[in-house]
Amino acid sequence: MSSELPQLTASDFASDQDVRWCPGCGDYSILAQMKKMLPTLGLPRENIVFISGIGCSSRFPYYVNTYGMHSIHGRAPAFATGLKSCRDDLQVWVITGDGDALSIGGNHFMHAIRRNIDIKIVMFNNRIYGLTKGQYSPTSPIHKITKSSPLGSIDRPLNPLSVAIGCEASFVARSIDVNIKHLGDMLHRAAMHKGTAFIEVYQNCNIFNDGAWDYATDRQTKQENTLQLEHGKPLIFGKNRDKGIRLNGTVPEIVELGKGVSEDDLLFHDERAEEPTLAYLLSRFRHPEFPEPIGVFRDVQREIYDQELRRQIEDSRKKRGTGDFDKLFQTGDTWTVGSSA
């Protein structure tokens, strides 16, 4: 009998649960591209785990025919860290939203990234709290009027990619829910990366924040407002690919090609640069001043937390032998608690 795994398809990764998102939600696209991508990994379904927190995106584990856990608000990276530290054979994904990851979960998000544990974090960013019906989130633009900010938000929004790169993330990417081929490619790149892979997905909430990303998705405007990153290629964008970005000293500026400016004058993308300065600079490009980059911002290799942890345990066993919990429990000062007379 052949020991090879049967060839799985996208339908093999579809669970028997009814998908309960609002009609037209961008979550459907992310789910579809994930199910298409997973068979390309050649992994059995029992070796893949999806862990989520709380929010619309966090229903994701129910809809994928793998192991999964719907955990508590903001703590999915902590659950994922524990699981991956114990089970190296599993590929562990964290599915989260901008509120779940960056508000109550900000601490766990930050430390999972800086540790570089081998998990994949996909953050659905719709710039709103959708599950709780339309309050402003950590990524909502300033002055955004919502149910919880009726006079306009006065909080400055967080930039998820800047936070991740500031924490020395080893893999950072961005995609858009409706850009399905690009999204599938980014998910595959993340799956192949060793270490924490973080992907921000611009996702439309058509009920509570419809059109938040129109400038990046509308056919008439997206080519002027987005910049597709390619390793080793100059930063060129525009409907006619006649615009580029160069550095004027340390300040980026938009220039027109062919008017005394050639491609060689432009800034070239290097996703493998050990120094994260360029990746961070790109993460600061915001509409309408600059086109917003999509693609891989950074992909470098660093020490992997779970591997280092297992190495420490193995080294300790070689030096001290296998531990004995009962012996450890009885070591040192102990007390007996009895009833008083």
Quick structural overview:
The protein is of the alpha/beta class and 341 residues long.
Per CATH, the architecture of the domain at 10-212 is: 3-Layer(aba) Sandwich
Total strands: the figure is: 11
Parts with pLDDT < 50 across at least 5 consecutive residues: none
Our measurement of the CA-to-CA distance between the termini, rounded to an integer number of angstroms, reads 72 Å
CATH class of the domain at 10-212: Alpha Beta
Question: What is the fold's blueprint, element by element?
Answer:
Layout (H helix, E strand, L loop, with lengths): L26 H11 L10 E5 L14 E4 L5 H11 L4 E7 H7 L1 H10 L3 E7 L34 H7 L4 E6 L3 H13 L4 E6 L11 H4 L4 H4 E3 L7 E2 L5 E6 L2 E6 L20 H7 L8 E8 L5 H16 L4 H5 L12
Parallel strand pairs: 1-2, 1-3, 3-4, 4-6, 5-6, 7-11
Antiparallel strand pairs: 5-11, 8-9, 9-10
